[in-house]
């Protein structure tokens, strides 16, 4: 080996060492293949380039990570149509999925951390006359907590991942990776506790309540506040859940209800119907929930006798101040009409 080649080989080995210093600028520019290899070596040594292992693999040798936030069973030709057409047009998958190696399973080589839709799409294409397609993956060595955060960062801005899917993912991760500490989880996710809390509240809504919605995946975190307000106290929650069960049973009769329509019906069922006749002398004469057009609870009105009302502002119900002012105005008009002797304009 010539002295020049021996020197280059020694430099290559040294650059792959963790302790290798950044090479000084050469006094003259090398040429040809040696120039490209030397420049690449300098970039790797300086940390400006991160080298990761990518492979084209058989999707059948991959499984979806158990904590993946995508509901894989809900994927189909319709909601993956964009990827199917993109892959066909390009003749390949161009953005790699993120996987980690699986040990001890003779049938599986990789676990998919990010890229369930890409996995489903390549699998579908291979089964529909595109057998040459393979699954492009980037292989990483990740802990479960790191895998959760990477998956979340990739999917947080995606519109095709529902708030319900994301919320359930966060609730699972809270217990598995953060010991139930919402503060620790928010810090690791670089998010506010208030933002995270809204997703966790959505995930904690009773399954019986979600059954009232034709497609729970249409629910947004903005729907959480009005729904939570309907679940307290217990007797109100019982009426709301009974209404939810009725809505679930009647599904398919007529056109599907929007989330706002379902919330309005649940809100209307929240309070017990008024009894006919005179109210009891002791206790309330009945309560009434006033909601905005969106279904968000605004006011609770409790009648105490014939000449007294107790008004509760439901500040966390999700309604606007303008909605509340309009509701109060309508309440005054109904219970405190203008005096017949009042001057008119």
How would the blueprint of this fold be written?
Elements: H1 3-15, H2 32-46, E1 53-57, E2 62-64, H3 81-90, E3 97-101, E4 110-114, H4 116-126, E5 135-139, H5 144-155, H6 163-178, H7 182-189, H8 193-203, H9 207-210, H10 224-229, H11 234-249, H12 259-268, E6 287-291, E7 297-303, E8 309-313, H13 321-335
Parallel strand pairs: 2-4, 3-5
Antiparallel strand pairs: 1-5, 3-4, 6-7, 7-8
Domain ParB-like N-terminal: 55-156
Protein name: ParB/RepB/Spo0J family partition protein
Pfam families: SoPB_HTH (PF18090)
Can you tag this structure with a few keywords?
345 residues; alpha/beta; Conserved hypothetical protein from pyrococcus furiosus pfu- 392566-001, ParB domain; three-stranded antiparallel β-sheet; 13 helices; disordered N terminus; Chromosome_partition/occlusion; SoPB_HTH; ParB/RepB/Spo0J family partition protein
What is the total tally of β strands? Answer: 8
Find the CATH superfamily of the domain at 35-142.
Answer: Conserved hypothetical protein from pyrococcus furiosus pfu- 392566-001, ParB domain
Strand content: 5-15%
Task: Sketch the major β-sheet.
Answer: 5 strands, mixed
* Low-pLDDT runs: 2-31, 276-285
Per CATH, the architecture of the domain at 35-142 is Alpha-Beta Complex
Q: Roughly how many Å is the radius of gyration? A: 31 Å
Mean pLDDT: 80
Helix share, percent: 40-55%
The outline comes out as elongated
Q: Which fold name fills CATH's third level, the topology of the domain at 35-142?
A: Conserved hypothetical protein from pyrococcus furiosus pfu- 392566-001, ParB domain
- SS-based class: alpha/beta
N-end to C-end Cα span: 107 Å
Q: How would you write the strand order of the largest sheet?
A: 1-5-3-4-2
What is the C-level CATH assignment of the domain at 35-142? Alpha Beta
Order of helical and strand elements: HHEEHEEHEHHHHHHHHEEEH
Output the number of helix runs. Answer: 13
Pfam families: SoPB_HTH
Protein name: ParB/RepB/Spo0J family partition protein
InterPro entries: Chromosome_partition/occlusion, ParB/RepB/Spo0J, ParB/Sulfiredoxin_sf, ParB_N, SoPB_HTH
Domain ParB-like N-terminal: 55-156
